[in-house]
Write a structure and sequence with these properties.
Layout lengths: L11 H36 L2 H35 L9 H13 L3 H21 L2 H8 L15 H35 L14 H28 L14 H31 L3 H30 L3 H4 L1 H14 L6 E4 L7 H13 L16 H8 L5 E2 L5 E7 L2 E9 L1 E2 L11 H7 L3 E2 L1 E5 L16 E2 L4 E2 L7 E2 L6 E2 L2 E2 L2 E3 L6 E5 L7 E4 L7 E2 L3 H11 L3 H4 L8 E3 L4 H8 L4 E2 L4 E5 L2 E12 L8 E2 H4 L16 E2 L1 E11 L5 E5 L5 H9 L12 H4 L6 H14 L4 H6 L4 E3 L3 H7 L9 E5 L8 E10 L5 E8 L8 E5 L9 H10 L3 H8 L4 E5 L3 E4 L5 E11 L7 E9 L2 E5 L2 H9 L38 H24 L2 H21 L37
Helix pairs in contact: 1-2, 1-15, 2-4, 2-5, 2-6, 5-6, 6-7, 7-8, 8-9, 27-28
Length: 1009
């Protein structure tokens, strides 16, 4: 027998050092964890959502304890029993001699090792289990859907709430038994109960009993797993074109699962019987039977049925199951009440063109509200005209909302002037200034979306509410903005320390834009009081900032504001919600509030198609002013909650918008009192609700396939649609795959009596650019959520968005202007390409065209409006003039920018071949044209110098000179402009053609600077 190898011992000093390091690590970890928990509690207490905090904390702790004790305790018990019933005497084989050194090492430390094993496994299992706290709460508080699934007849709530928990519990059961089995095998092997290389008996009686019990439990759990697998067939993808149990699943795999349940149960009994009969042949034979059965009837038989029964006539075999999937998917995405309208107007015939003219002249709802301002490109314009100080800013994407002023409802581009801490420079960036002086934004800004300013501000938004102090036609009682979208810099929360007896917070410039400033002190209900030393110490540790303890700006009246992004606040207050990526501001009852949409989701709705939230809700603008949804799988969604965040005090309110949603009802049971009834929403608040963009994008994606109700046609996929790539982003960024975003418009839908605020999208035929459908979802409180689909025939001549954009760019009058706009000092910016239904007359496309300089402080200005109807194109300075070009003189008077109405009369030059009416031509005076080109270049150079110098008098004169030079060029070139030119602006530099160039400039001068 070999002598035992001595175990190396640590010196006393090494043990002491290791102990100190361990204690410090534990201490820092505990302090950091407790600080985070306490800071979280203070936030929940401030927002009055402590019910959420305590429920989540208690549920996590309960699951941690249950899983930790069960896993660590049972595995440790299994190891202890294996050691407890180890053989007293072991054969003197070479195998046992080699194991002796390990036994001698473990014997004196076995209690420590056993305890450490149980604790470590318990901590790991507890940490894994506590993350499933929502699964536990959903199971405990599950609410029936009242809808049976089509295969098993069980309520949908069983699949959504119960089955996920059963799967979770089963997974932990397998883990515990497997770990206990591994621990028992290793212990039995080390201490001689299991002898792999020793002649004679391989197992002691105690080892055989213990391993038989554990193997029996494992196989018994496998029988339960087979039973639950039956219900999981409703998520099968075997059908290919749909989700849910297919013909093969129901007729081959389901019977196989039933048989395997019985076989597994028999196998488990055989292992338990082996405790008594002491014969390994019986359990081995049963286990072999289970393996063979699982391969033959669980794998081979379904494959044979699929290959030889289903595949030869799959559309017929799968028809019943396809119908189930269609209906379930429509239910899961709330698309079971879509209003399909056959919209087959032929826009090519003369008679129907005349009908379109008549419809346009009678239109009092859609065309007057046609949106010319694109909130996705005007952030720089809002910044240039309404920023006022560098500490303020606007998000990259502005918002669209509607207001009723003097009895007239129209949509506005809206934004709030937020604190933009990322632009603080120099001494502004010190801790004192960043966190105690520059603490908030100020003001609400709005501009009617269907018009632009005139005169010196031509092409700019017509700001009807703005400036500091805020004034305009939208009354704001409290304009300070302490909570906003810019208060989260790349995931880093921007906190502020506010309050105190002395006003020290910068509120606004004195006199609106003077050199002085007006200071204020926050007196709202928001924020956590940090007057005590303990609170200040807590936040000093949390933010790792000693100024909480040392700075005189932190006093006994101070509060700290944090988690200030509206989306972050709602997600924290309601962790059971998925929040839409685009919050928007509104003035409600005189207060600025952020409105947000909360979704309840599930990935367990039977027979419904699975999607990815992040992928399905992405479009060409995701990440630019909007937040991408998480990449998690789901197949059920409801816009169940409307949330508000007060921009001044940060108060969060959740309202049950869809109180019939069983998922929302379940979480309202779990978190009583956190979601208020819809009846508590004020009338003014309800008037500003919008149909959410992310939900709409998910639904339109589903509609591209599930608008087909016939199962055979659905299976053959011969009438699919698709979302058009965004043609404007394609032109500007070279992007070809990003979806066109949906657009909010105020328009009258076919069949409606008045205009409604709606979210819209055009859908193309699959892998074609022709238009197949137009989808809209109402945002009006009375018809909220009603989805209408204008369905075009399969052979429709309607152009899709990309075809329309290509026709714009290839037009003989548009193309030269685009070339001129895209120069070294300017670029063309394409606004949103809107699709507008004009009664039953057809679809009209409207696109604003902006020009922006390449200078640092340049911003886009509206210069032209493009219109398309069938094969007709209008291109002019105003929508009214563009409509006149397409439909005839006087039609455009219905547009908001139509000016003085004139008597409508048909135009003899109305185009029918896709060309815009050409300006009249005369003789060309080459000498005068060259002279005009020189004047153009001189005027552009002067305008650029004047803009950089900030000399407004020179800017105005240069603009006038440029206008005269363009008119002189047109006259010399024998042209008479089709429309009057808009006044140029200094904000968007460009350049004129070089001297001697033969290219004619546009009818509108290029903005320069």
């Amino acid at each position: 027998m070999r002598p035992p190898v001595p175990v190396p011992a640590l010196s006393r000093r090494a043990k002491l050092a290791i102990g100190v390091v361990a204690v410090l690590l534990v201490l820092f970890t505990v302090i950091g964890t407790l600080t985070n928990v306490y800071v979280d509690y203070l936030w929940f207490d401030e927002t009055r959502f402590t019910e959420v905090f305590w429920t989540e904390l208690q549920t996590r702790a309960l699951l941690f304890a249950l899983a930790g004790v069960a896993t660590g305790g049972l595995v440790a018990l299994s190891v202890h029993l294996a050691y407890r019933f180890r053989p007293t005497f072991r054969p003197m084989s070479l195998e046992q001699q080699n194991l002796e050194r390990y036994r001698q090492s473990l014997e004196p430390r076995r209690k420590v090792v056993l305890t450490a094993l149980g604790v470590v496994l318990g901590l790991l299992a507890g940490a894994a289990a506590q993350g499933s706290w929502q699964t536990w709460l959903a199971w405990r508080n599950g609410t029936p859907f009242g809808t049976p699934d089509p295969q098993f007849g069980k309520d949908v709530g069983f699949f959504v709430f119960d089955l996920p928990f059963y799967r979770l519990a089963l997974g932990f059961g397998f883990t515990i038994v497997l770990l206990a089995l591994i621990g028992a095998v290793l212990t039995q092997y080390v201490f001689g109960g299991l002898r792999l290389q020793t002649p004679g008996q391989k197992l002691t009686g105690a080892a055989r009993v213990q391993l038989s019990v554990l193997l029996g439990l494992f196989v018994a759990l496998k029988a339960i797993a087979y039973w639950l697998d039956r219900y999981s067939l409703v998520y099968s993808n075997r059908g290919g074109t749909y989700t849910g149990a297919s013909y093969t699943d129901v007729n081959a795999l389901l019977p196989a699962k039933n048989i395997l349940v019985v076989v597994a149960a028999i196998c488990a009994i055989a292992f338990f019987v082996n405790i008594v009969v002491r014969n390994t042949v019986l359990p081995a034979a049963a286990l072999g039977l289970l393996l063979v059965a699982s391969l033959l009837i669980g794998v081979a038989y379904p494959a044979i049925v699929q290959q030889f029964v289903v595949r030869p006539s799959a559309d017929q075999r799968e028809a019943e199951f396809t119908s189930r999937a269609i209906q379930s998917t429509l239910d899961a995405y709330k698309l079971n009440d879509v209003d399909y309208v056959n919209y087959a107007q032929d826009q090519t015939s003369t008679a129907d063109a005349d009908a379109a003219v008549a419809a346009l002249r009678d239109d009092t709802e859609t065309i007057p509200n046609a949106r010319l301002l694109d909130p996705n490109v005007l952030a720089a314009t809002f910044t240039a005209r309404q920023q006022i100080r560098n500490v303020y800013g606007f998000p990259d994407k502005l918002d669209i909302d509607r207001y009723t002023i003097d009895g007239v409802t129209q949509d506005y581009v809206v934004a709030v002037r937020e604190l933009n801490s990322s632009d603080l420079s120099g001494n502004q960036g010190s801790w004192i200034n960043r966190h105690t002086v520059y603490t908030h934004g100020n003001g609400f800004v709005a501009a009617p979306a269907n018009q632009v300013a005139a005169g010196q501000q031509a092409g700019e938004p017509n700001f009807t509410t703005g400036d500091l102090p805020t004034r305009g036609n939208i009354e704001v009682d409290r304009s300070q903005v302490y909570y906003g979208e810019l208060l989260n810099n790349d995931g880093v929360d921007v906190y502020s320390v506010v309050g105190g007896p002395t006003p020290r917070e910068f509120d606004q410039p004195e006199g609106g834009s003077g050199e002085g400033q007006i200071n204020s002190t926050y007196d709202g209900a928001g924020g956590v009081a940090i007057g005590s030393f303990f609170r200040r110490l807590t936040y000093a540790i949390y933010y790792r900032e000693r100024n909480f303890l040392l700075s005189g700006a932190v006093n006994d009246q101070s509060k700290v504001l944090y988690v200030r992004d509206p989306r972050d606040r709602v997600e924290k207050a309601a962790p059971f919600l998925t929040v839409d990526g685009d919050p928007y501001p509104a003035v409600v009852d005189g207060k600025i509030v952020w409105l947000l949409d909360g979704y309840t989701t599930s990935d367990a709705y039977p027979y419904a198609e699975q999607m990815s939230l992040g992928e399905g809700a992405a479009d060409a603008l995701t990440g630019t002013g909007t937040t991408a949804l998480p990449d998690q799988q789901f197949n059920y969604i409801r816009n169940s909650v409307k949330a508000t965040v007060d921009a001044y005090d940060g108060s969060v309110n959740l309202y049950a918008w869809d109180d019939e949603d069983p998922v929302l009802q379940t979480y309202m049971k779990a978190f009583p009192g956190t979601v208020k009834p819809r009846s508590e929403m004020s009338e003014d608040l309800v008037s500003h609700v919008r149909y959410p963009e992310d939900l709409f994008k998910l639904q339109r994606d589903v509609l591209t396939r599930y608008h087909v109700s016939d199962p055979i046609a659905f299976y053959n996929q011969n009438d699919r649609w698709q979302v058009s790539p965004d043609p404007t982003q394609q032109q500007q960024q070279g992007t070809t795959t990003d979806d066109q975003p949906p657009y909010y418009i105020l328009a009258q839908r076919p069949g409606d009596q008045r205009a409604s605020f709606q979210l819209t999208s055009a859908l193309n035929a699959f892998e074609r650019d022709n238009l197949s459908a137009f989808v809209s979802a109402s945002s009006d409180p009375g018809t909220y959520g009603q989805i209408q689909v204008l369905r075009l025939p399969g052979n429709t001549p309607y152009r899709g968005p990309r075809q329309v954009q290509n026709s714009f760019l290839s037009n003989n009058l548009v193309r030269p202007d685009i070339t001129l706009f895209n120069s070294e000092s300017s670029r063309a910016v394409y606004g949103n390409l809107l699709t507008l239904p004009i009664g039953d007359a057809g679809l009209l496309y409207v696109e604003p065209l902006y020009v922006q300089g390449t200078g640092e402080n340049s911003f886009p200005l509206l210069q032209k409006v493009l219109v398309n109807y069938a094969d007709r194109i209008g291109y002019a300075d105003t929508l009214a003039e563009a409509l006149d070009q397409v439909f005839g003189q006087g039609v455009g008077e219905v547009a908001a920018d139509g000016g003085t109405p004139t008597t409508p009369s048909p135009s003899p030059t109305t185009p029918t071949d896709g060309a815009t009416p050409a300006p009249s031509a005369g003789p060309v005076d080459e000498a005068a044209r060259d002279q005009a080109v020189n004047r153009l270049n001189d005027a552009i150079t002067e305008l650029g110098d004047a803009t950089r110098a900030g000399d407004f008098a020179r800017i105005g004169q240069a603009q006038a000179d440029l206008q005269e030079a363009v008119q002189a060029y047109q006259a010399a070139n024998g042209q008479t402009a089709a429309s009057s030119s808009a006044a140029p602006s200094s904000a968007a530099p460009s350049s004129a053609p070089a001297s001697g160039s033969s290219a004619a400039p546009s009818a509108s001068p290029t903005p320069t600077g």
